[in-house]
């Protein structure tokens, strides 16, 4: 997405060789591709080097989902999709043209398409379909399916619309080849990221359901759709459970990206109203076999239930090397209250991360201070050299401090620093026209009280928001938190109906590009369902997004991303929170796994398999044999 996860690059052979990109001639068919260098697998890719290619199939993996669902069509801005379906990508049901690698960033391998090519000016891309690719009903996946999918997704999905903004159309070149045309040249990642296009079955969606009613891709549905991937819906109870069954004759089972993976016969998702209920279900067994733990306090002190003590549940940490997400308290700048950058900066000064990390998070986290945390994409120091050249034309539209001060978040490491940070916050509010009267922060001209409602969708959000709210109240702000159910939260965030979000996240890749438009561009700000939740409308940001997208090589991309990062930070659209750098997981001891896991993701559950004897023993011990 985020997520996961984004991608492509290629240029003339000489540029590839000097810039470190994959060397290949223009218009040459290529399979494995990378935006940040040559893939370690090359063209003779047999299977991922970490998987067990002989992993046995079988068993059931149980998972818990918080909330509810009412829709099997995830590509529209309506309803809540069921677990296993995703708004970007194919999820468990559909294959994409190519598949993003699990162990390398910004790298893709063949799936529905066995190869692609593009001209030297990046004005188009052609994908060649694997003749073996077929739907679950046995019909072949065709060029018509690809063209139809592109058209309906661009028309109905805000995510795909922004991602493929520069793709004008798709046309059939032959019965196996489809060509995508671009309205601009030089977008080096665009030919590759078209591999992220999910392909939908045109003949199914344009057909009739069991009652004879014509299906409609623009509407929600609870009719299990026809798919093409390794799983299909076996059964479901709307809003409470969905079970996915592995397809025994899945067409892609022998592809390089699939060997040794997707080993579970069934995947069952059970829905619970909140995380505490889900946690209790996990401790009892039978509802959730694998849990990625995101609560530091729980990880530190609550894994003491009987199954842990007996060794039937195992705790393990998996290090990650992928970029860290920008996780933050997100400010809705559509609200007049937040349109003054000094107000947003004041809110940043009011957040005490250090005390929260010490008292609530057991010192586990590191403060996030970049939209591109991790790797070489995060801005540091002062802008200089080529980055300064990029920013110079916008100097009169940017905060002057951007050019003279290194961006630093406030630090609450002593009682004195806490007082100084709150004093600085109040001074910024005062400069923006807000003053303290009788303990309340009010507008100096109108007398309006400064009010903020944080929106969350889980009781856990109270732990995340309450310390921040306490500090805001010390400044005289009428700050509150509202927890709503998952459906309300989805609808309100899609419609941008909130002041601030208690927790929001943006997952970046090692090669940012076209997805930045959906994250931060002006055109996405007012489009319901877009990922520009902050409502950013800044012509400088728009220009820098294009500068990132049309970067000429890796060095140019890194420099342009530094400039974009710096401008986003100095406009204080979000109050950054924290990151961990590893996946904390607990799992019932019914699995076996490869000796190593891909550090880019941290853990690839699809590469695990179930020991039937252990599965049976645990069921007998904790579920009476059921």
TrEMBL record:
Main location: periplasm
Full protein name: Extracellular solute-binding protein
Signal peptide from the UniProt entry: 1-26
Keyword flag Ribosomal protein: no
Domain Solute-binding protein family: 109-524
Xref: InterPro entries: Peptide/Ni-bd (IPR030678), SBP_5 (IPR039424), SBP_5_dom (IPR000914)
SUPFAM superfamilies: Periplasmic binding protein-like II
Domain of life: Bacteria
The entry's keywords: Signal
Subcellular location: Periplasm
CDD domains the UniProt entry points to: MbnE-like (cd08497)
The family this protein is said to belong to: Belongs to the bacterial solute-binding protein 5 family.
Transmembrane annotation, as ranges: none
Gene3D superfamilies for this protein: Dipeptide-binding Protein, Domain 3, Periplasmic binding protein-like II
Source taxonomy: Bacteria, Pseudomonadati, Pseudomonadota, Alphaproteobacteria, Hyphomicrobiales
Pfam families associated with the record: SBP_bac_5
């Amino acid at each position: 997405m985020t997520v996961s996860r984004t991608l492509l690059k290629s240029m003339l052979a000489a540029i590839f060789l000097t810039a470190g990109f994959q060397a290949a001639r223009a218009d040459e068919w290529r399979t494995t591709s990378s935006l940040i260098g040559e893939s370690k697998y090359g063209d003779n890719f047999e299977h991922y080097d970490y998987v067990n290619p002989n992993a046995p199939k079988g068993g059931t993996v149980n998972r818990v989902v918080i909330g509810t669902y009412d829709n099997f069509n995830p590509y529209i801005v309506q309803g809540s999709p069921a677990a296993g379906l995703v708004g970007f990508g194919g999820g468990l049901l559909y294959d994409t043209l190519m598949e993003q690698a699990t162990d390398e960033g910004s790298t893709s391998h063949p799936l529905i398409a066995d190869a692609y090519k593009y001209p030297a000016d990046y004005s188009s891309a052609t994908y060649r379909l694997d003749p073996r690719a077929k739907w679950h009903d046995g019909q072949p996946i065709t060029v018509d399916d690809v063209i139809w999918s592109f058209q309906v997704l661009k028309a109905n999905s805000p995510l795909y619309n922004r991602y493929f903004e520069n793709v004008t159309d798709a046309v059939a070149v032959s019965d196996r080849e489809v060509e995508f045309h671009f309205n601009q040249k030089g977008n080096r990642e665009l030919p590759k990221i078209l591999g992220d296009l999910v392909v939908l079955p045109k003949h199914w969606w344009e057909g009739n359901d069991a009652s004879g009613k014509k299906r409609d891709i623009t509407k929600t549905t609870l009719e299990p759709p026809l798919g093409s991937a390794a799983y299909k819906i076996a059964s479901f109870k709307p809003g409470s459970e969905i079970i996915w069954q592995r397809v025994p004759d899945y067409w892609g089972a022998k592809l390089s990206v699939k060997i040794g993976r997707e080993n579970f016969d069934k995947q069952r998702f059970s829905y619970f109203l909140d995380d505490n209920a889900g946690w209790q279900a996990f401790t009892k067994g039978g509802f959730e076999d694998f849990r990625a733990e995101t609560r530091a306090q729980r990880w530190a002190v609550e894994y003491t239930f009987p199954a842990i003590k007996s060794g039937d549940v195992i705790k393990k940490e998996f290090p990650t090397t992928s970029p860290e997400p920008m996780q933050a308290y997100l400010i809705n700048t559509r609200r007049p209250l937040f349109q003054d950058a000094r107000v947003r900066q004041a809110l940043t000064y009011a957040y005490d991360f250090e005390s929260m990390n010490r008292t609530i998070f057991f010192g586990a986290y590191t403060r996030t201070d970049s939209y591109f945390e991790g790797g070489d994409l995060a801005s540091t120091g002062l802008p200089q050299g080529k980055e300064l050249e990029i920013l110079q034309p916008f100097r009169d539209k940017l905060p002057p401090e951007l050019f003279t001060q290194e961006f630093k978040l406030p630090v609450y490491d002593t009682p004195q620093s806490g007082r100084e940070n709150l004093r600085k916050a109040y001074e910024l509010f005062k400069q923006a026209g807000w003053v303290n009267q009788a303990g309340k922060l009010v507008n100096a001209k109108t007398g309006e009280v400064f009010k903020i409602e944080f929106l969350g969708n889980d009781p856990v959000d109270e732990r995340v928001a309450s310390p921040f709210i306490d500090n805001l109240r010390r400044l005289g702000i009428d700050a509150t938190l509202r927890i709503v159910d998952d459906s309300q939260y989805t609808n309100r965030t899609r419609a941008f109906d909130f002041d601030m979000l208690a927790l929001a996240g943006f997952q970046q890749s090692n090669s940012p590009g076209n997805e930045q438009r959906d994250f931060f561009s002006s055109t996405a700000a007012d489009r319901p369902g877009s990922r520009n939740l902050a409502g950013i409308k800044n012509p400088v940001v728009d220009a820098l997004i294009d500068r990132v997208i049309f970067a000429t090589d890796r060095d140019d991309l890194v420099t342009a991303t530094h400039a974009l990062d710096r401008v986003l930070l100095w406009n204080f659209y979000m109050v950054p929170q924290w990151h961990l750098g590893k996946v904390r997981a607990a799992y019932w001891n019914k699995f076996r796994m490869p000796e190593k896991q891909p550090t880019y993701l941290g853990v690839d559950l699809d590469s695990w398999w179930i020991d039937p004897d252990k599965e049976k023993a645990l069921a007998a011990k904790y579920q009476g044999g059921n």
